[in-house]
Amino acid sequence: MGLRYSSYIDHPKSKHAKFVTYGCCHCRTHLSSSAQIMSKDYRGTTGDAYLMNKVVNVFEGNKETRHMLTGRYIVCDILCHMCRNLVGWKYLESDRKDQRYKEGKYILELQTICKVH
Ligand SMILES: [Zn+2]
């Protein structure tokens, strides 16, 4: 019987009043949702950013090593697959054990996304 209730997750208007879908600010392609936010306490290259569990409809750019406040990471940029707007990056590997939870997770820069319906 539990399965029957899980389908409501996709119907935010009925059950999740605060559910927000995030899209590309240029073409409004859906990228992620408020249900995927792991942390709002991040900084991107353009300002505030969110750490997201899952992001869809993006291309992954070339792998590169980036030095950040919390250490060295191998990351790749993520771009909207419709308009190639740069929307953030994906963490691929971390040097530090305590930062490994970010591996496979995404940063979305708030400047590059918008709320869509
Ligand atoms: Zn786009």
From TrEMBL:
Tagged with keyword Protein transport: no
The record's annotation in Pfam families points to:
Yippee-Mis18
| Location of the Yippee domain | 20-117
Nucleus: present as a keyword of the record? no
The organism's place on the tree of life at top rank:
Eukaryota
Q: Which UniProt keywords apply?
A: Metal-binding, Zinc
Q: Which family does it belong to?
A: Belongs to the yippee family.
What the entry lists under PANTHER family is as follows: PROTEIN YIPPEE-LIKE CG15309-RELATED
Q: What is this protein called?
A: Protein yippee-like
Q: Which organism is it from?
A: Lachancea mirantina
